[in-house]
Design a protein that fits this description.
binds coenzyme A; acyltransferase; Aminopeptidase; single chain; 5 helices; alpha+beta
């Protein structure tokens, strides 16, 4: 069986990733807002890392790590989330990395898990602790739980016109 390989994202991956993001918006409602279905939303200037999953030479998914404070949205809700993650993990806000922009095309089993594992390893190499937030209505919530993540509360985020009590998650707590 061909393996899923995770590697750094290249500029040339963006058209394929945008197609995946369009499909995800249409079928999973992620992202919620159609106006952010854009390559520059996936690959933000403030990101720490951008990774893609490849299978049989084809790009099948994406994940990024963002700083916990002063990320792409720079919203007060983001800071609140950062402080809650910090309180739950005992890790300083500046030592957190937010696993973000996770999306797969759904054609290759294990791609999401491979991306999450690679994001975790990438954070660890920089001595950062991975955290994430998820739309309360997203089916990805169950995916993260399956991978061992735990919900530690919520923080209200402003996503365009919407205010959403995003679910905050951390990994590997006893
Ligand atoms: C969530 C998502 C990234 C999962 O990716 P994927 O490639 O389908 O996941 P994998 O095949 O690696 O699945 C890993 C495990 O999680 C399970 N799983 C996958 N999706 C799941 C879901 N929605 N609910 C519960 N479990 C799920 C799989 O069965 C598998 O379990 P196993 O290995 O123990 O058999 C993908 O469905 C997606 O892109 N969704 C839309 C975008 C999105 O919501 N992103 C998250 C934003 S916060």
């Amino acid at each position: 069986m061909t393996e899923v390989v995770v590697r750094p994202r290249l500029e040339s991956d963006l058209p394929a990733l945008l197609s995946i993001l369009r499909r995800s918006h249409a079928t999973h409602g992620y992202p919620r807002r159609s106006e952010v279905v854009r390559a520059d939303w996936l690959a933000t200037p403030t990101e720490l890392v951008g990774l893609v999953a490849e299978h049989a030479g084809r790009v099948v998914g994406h994940v990024a790590l963002h700083p916990a404070a002063h990320g792409p949205d720079d919203d007060p809700g983001e800071l609140q989330a950062a402080h809650r993650w910090s309180a739950a993990t005992g890790v300083r806000v500046e030592d957190l990395a937010v696993v973000s922009r996770l999306v797969t095309d759904g054609t290759v089993r294990g791609a999401g898990r491979a991306l999450m594992d690679a994001a975790g390893r990438s954070a660890a190499r920089s001595a950062l602790s991975p955290v994430l937030l998820v739309d309360p209505a997203a089916d990805a919530r169950a995916f993260y739980r399956r991978l061992g993540w735990q919900e530690i509360g919520t923080a209200r985020q402003r996503w365009g016109e919407n205010e959403v009590d995003a679910v905050l998650m951390v990994v590997g707590r006893p």
